[in-house]
Amino acid sequence: MKKVILSFCAVTLFAFTASAQFHFEFGLNGNLPQGDAADTYSFGAGVYLEPRYAMSDNLDVGLLIGFNGLAGGDINSVGTANTEVSAAAVVPVLGTGTYRFSGNKVSPYAGAGIGLYFVKTGEASVSGMVVAESATESEFGFAPRAGVFIGRLNLGVAYNIAGDLKYMQFNLGVRILGRG
Exposure string (b/e) for 31-65, b if CB count within 10 Å is 16 or more? Predict the structure, then answer.
């Protein structure tokens, strides 16, 4: 019985200590396609969840998992034919690192994410005739990012690069649990 009680106390103490270093961020974002992606998609919106672990007072490591939708549109680059592209879905799964420049309530930060982007593109049609079916692919990519933490609120910007897909992302997140 003593071993059970001691084990319970040890696990509880470890969980309490770890919870001070472990936190989540949940947020919404707006996306602006860049480069060739801007010719095909007009804008996007999404959500993300990023569990993080505080390695030190200023450095967090985490795993960002998101879902972003990019709105399709009309492309009139094929003579007089009307070319339409359906919406696309992008699911980034990125290992992240974030460095806070201060421990104050208002703290600027910089960081990056690196990992896989799962992209499902919509179909393309010219004058109502399908010329390209929807496709799913994965691309290796990265996302440098910067912003400011204001208490538990995160106002940030990231530039996502995955193959030909490039988009600027504006984040509004809220941190839950530690790192207040």
Answer: bbbeeebeebbeebebebbbbbebeeeeebebebe
How many alpha carbons lie under 13 Å from residue 29 in its C-beta half-sphere?
Answer: 32
Strands (E), 7-43: 22-34
What is the DSSP secondary structure assignment for residue 122, as one 8-state letter?
P
- Tokens read off for 39: 């010719």
Q: CA–CA separation, 45 vs 68, rounded Å? A: 6
Q: Which three-class secondary structure string do you get for 41-105?
A: CCCEEEEEEEEEEECCCCEEEEEEEEEEEECCEEECCCCCCCEEECCEEEEEEEEEEEEECCCCC
Torsion-angle region of residue 25: left (phi > 0), alpha (psi -120 to 50) or beta? Answer: beta
DSSP state of 179: -
Beta strands 88-100; 59-70: pairing state: antiparallel
Kindly report which listed range (32-36, 119-123, 153-157) carries the lowest average pLDDT score: 119-123
Both tokens of 155, joined, read: 């106002």
Q: 0.90 cut: is pTM over it? A: no
